[in-house]
Amino acid sequence: MRGLVLEGGGAKGAYHIGVVKSLYEMGFDFQAVAGTSVGALNGAMIVQGEIDKAYDIWYNLCPEKVIRLTDTERRELKYIGEQEKRLGAKLERLRKIIADRGLDISPLESLLRAVIDEEKIRNSKMEFGIVTYDLTSRRPVEVYKEDIPHGKLIDYLIASSSLPVFKLKTIDDKVYLDGGIYNVLPVNLVQQKGCKDVVVIRTYTPFGRIRKFNEKGLNIINIGPTESLGPVLDFSTTRARRNLLLGYFDAKRVVLKLKGKRYYIKPFKKDENFFVDYFVELDDAHIKSVCELFGIENTYGRRALFEHIIPKIGNILNIPSNASYGDIVVSLIEHAAQVLEIEQFSIYTIKELLTNIMKKYRGTSEDIIKQIPAFIRNMNVISKIVKDKIIVKIAVELLGNMLEKDL
User: Fold this and answer.
1) Where a domain ends, among 233, 255, 277?
2) Model confidence, pTM
3) Which residue, among 338, 362, 333, has the nearest Cα to 350 in the 3D structure?
């Protein structure tokens, strides 16, 4: 059996649906689904067999479909989003909203009652478990669909996703809080249903805790973002659409073993020896040009390349010291592509991405050298001063000849 686990994370949940849509296209299926908070909401749509509807909901999402905001609350939430990394300031704003009895999520509740089909979920062959927290009894509640009283499935979904800033959900005189306070990533719920293969979709939410589980005997595929999904309360259309795409392509990266951290690059036909040989055979003119960019004097040729240039590239791009030459090539190409604003959401061969870089490149090496004094170009802090100005030129000079190779 294969299980799917969806981490909580509020507005970050669009990422789940992008991932699952991609997984379905690649032939995955699931016999059990578990989630906390927004993971429970998305899980319900998946279990009732309506991933396309879930995608459309997120694609057309806006704050007004989730929260009914006063002008004051809108200002407070904007501050929380802008100060996401400043925990103290964030918690102070959260406390203020909570003291004012929480945000009104009646629009979200109306949306859920319009799109969630309790009978479809109960009749689905997929197991379904969620997590919430009984604040009245001060105990966690981990339940499967069969444990939830008929007619109250949506109430429990809302209870699972009642973030501390929301007005809390009451069911049968008990007050419930977001399940992330107990377990934001409930792998145990699919494990208990007999799943040995588990796909875990991460959001890396700053809220909630992950409880330990016994990984013995489990084959886990982790899919998570390599860049920020934005604030937990950023329900903007722009953010939701980006996270859908990010999830869709990140799933491809993991399953198809694509290269890259920002871009999606097909695996190479060649091994590490190819890249070593490529640099060894690189002509002196290109090496000399990069030496000038870095302000390297009195050393040229292969020695300059391997002793000075490649280490400096590693420093600029924060590449680990144990990275392979293939990894360095990918990182250099990715950074150049990002500087040139080449479309991120597509699957490229390394040649295709490099070709796009060459097409968008405009020769500026003379201007760069004139603009930046040699002593600055030679400094180790170059990444903070002139990285974007020279990274494209370096990629073009060092990797341009790679287009002639069979990769």
Assistant:
1) 255
2) 0.89
3) 333
